[in-house]
């Protein structure tokens, strides 16, 4: 059989045209890859959107939980019991002498909580023994001082529930409250002031009156009963007379009969009962 170059050429052209026709049958072949790339890009964008939504949702839930806790906690701080206390303290603190007394009333902090104390000069801080009992450390903070001072027990009388600390204040001269060491320190119905750190607050000033001495089971000496709003955290607060001298130290509360009814009274250790301790630290009374 003869080889026909013309026919072969025609066949070759025909095959070439067929291939071109097949290629033309799929004009978007190259664009399919671009479409898949766009899909991948869309998937990446969706993932980023999901992550952003999850993050925002978590933040919203955390903020909402915090807001709920704050709203739930606020009534424990500001309520019908504490609001009158705060308003009265603000009123009393507008008096220059009360503001001066407050500068000598400190916060006594330990690894088990906090209480109140007051500076009687030379870095000596009077507080309750139960405030600092069995604690790993003791620090005190004066209201007008940014520094926190380390303190150590100087002398104490656990039976009286009285402790006197020595704060490491160096040679600083810090505000102090003078103690009333005269034999006749107070009288029933006398008006008094108490400054302390009750509940969740600090530097709260209150006023009241002295009911008198009352016996307490388990104590050898009677204690001073006060008709005044005393709360947790007031332990170690000074009871001061109108002359601004400390006449007793708050240590507890109890139901006491007063004016033909039972009231929750504050209980305080008279300064006279602490004379033995004070004599070791302060100059004798002239």
State the main characteristics.
single chain, 286 residues, alpha+beta, Thrombin, subunit H, six-stranded antiparallel β-barrel, six-stranded antiparallel beta barrel, 6 helices, 12 strands
CATH superfamily of the domain at 191-279: Trypsin-like serine proteases
Global outline: globular
**Helix-strand topology string:** HHHHEEEHEEEEEEEEEH
Strand order of the largest sheet: 1-2-3-6-5-4
N-to-C span: 151 Å
Mean pLDDT: 83
- What is the CATH C-level name of the domain at 191-279? Mainly Beta
Rg, alpha carbons: 40 Å
Individual helix count = 6
Low-confidence stretches: 1-33
Q: Indicate the proportion of strand residues.
A: 25-35%
Number of strand elements: 12
Q: Briefly note the CATH topology name of the domain at 191-279.
A: Thrombin, subunit H
| Computed structural class | alpha+beta
CATH architecture of the domain at 191-279: Beta Barrel
Write the layout of secondary structure elements.
Elements: H1 5-25, H2 29-77, H3 82-93, H4 96-102, E1 105-110, E2 113-119, E3 124-127, H5 129-132, E4 138-141, E5 148-157, E6 162-167, E7 191-196, E8 204-214, E9 223-227, E10 238-240, E11 246-258, E12 261-270, H6 275-279
Textual characterization of the structure:
The chain is of the alpha+beta class. Among the domains are: 87-167, Thrombin, subunit H (Beta Barrel), CATH 2.40.10; 191-279, Trypsin-like serine proteases (Thrombin, subunit H, Beta Barrel). It is 34% helix and 30% strand. The protein has helices at 5-25, 29-77, 82-93, 96-102, 129-132, 275-279, and strands at 105-110, 113-119, 124-127, 138-141, 148-157, 162-167, 191-196, 204-214, 223-227, 238-240, 246-258, 261-270. The strands form two sheets. Strands 1-2-3-6-5-4 form a six-stranded antiparallel barrel. Strands 7-8-9-12-11-10 form a six-stranded antiparallel barrel. Strand 4 (138-141) and strand 5 (148-157) form a beta hairpin.
């Amino acid at each position: 059989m003869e080889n026909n170059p013309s026919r072969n050429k025609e066949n070759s052209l025909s095959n070439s045209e067929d291939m071109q026709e097949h290629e033309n049958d799929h004009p978007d072949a190259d664009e399919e890859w671009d479409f898949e790339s766009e899909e991948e890009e869309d998937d990446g964008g969706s993932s980023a959107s999901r992550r952003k939504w999850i993050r925002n949702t978590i933040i919203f839930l955390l903020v909402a939980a915090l807001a709920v806790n704050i709203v739930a906690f606020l009534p424990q701080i500001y309520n019908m019991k504490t609001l009158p206390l705060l308003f009265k303290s603000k009123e009393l603190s507008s008096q220059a002498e009360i503001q001066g007394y407050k500068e000598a009333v400190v916060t006594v902090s330990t690894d088990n909580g906090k209480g109140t104390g007051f500076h009687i000069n030379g870095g000596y801080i009077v507080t309750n023994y139960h405030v600092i009992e069995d604690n790993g450390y003791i620090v005190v903070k004066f209201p007008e001082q940014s520094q926190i001072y380390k303190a150590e027990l100087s002398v104490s009388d656990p039976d009286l529930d009285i402790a006197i600390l020595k704060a490491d204040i160096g040679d600083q001269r810090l505000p102090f409250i003078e103690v009333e060491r005269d034999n006749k320190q107070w009288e029933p119905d006398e008006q008094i002031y108490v400054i302390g750190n009750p509940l969740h607050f600090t530097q709260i000033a209150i006023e009241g009156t002295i009911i008198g001495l009352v016996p307490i089971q388990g104590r050898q000496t009677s204690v001073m009963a006060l008709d005044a709003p005393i709360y947790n955290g007031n332990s170690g607060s000074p009871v001061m007379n109108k002359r601004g001298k400390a006449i007793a130290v708050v240590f507890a509360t109890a139901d006491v009969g007063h004016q033909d009814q039972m009231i929750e009274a504050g209980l305080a250790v008279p300064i006279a009962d602490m004379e033995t301790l004070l004599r070791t630290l302060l100059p004798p009374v002239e």
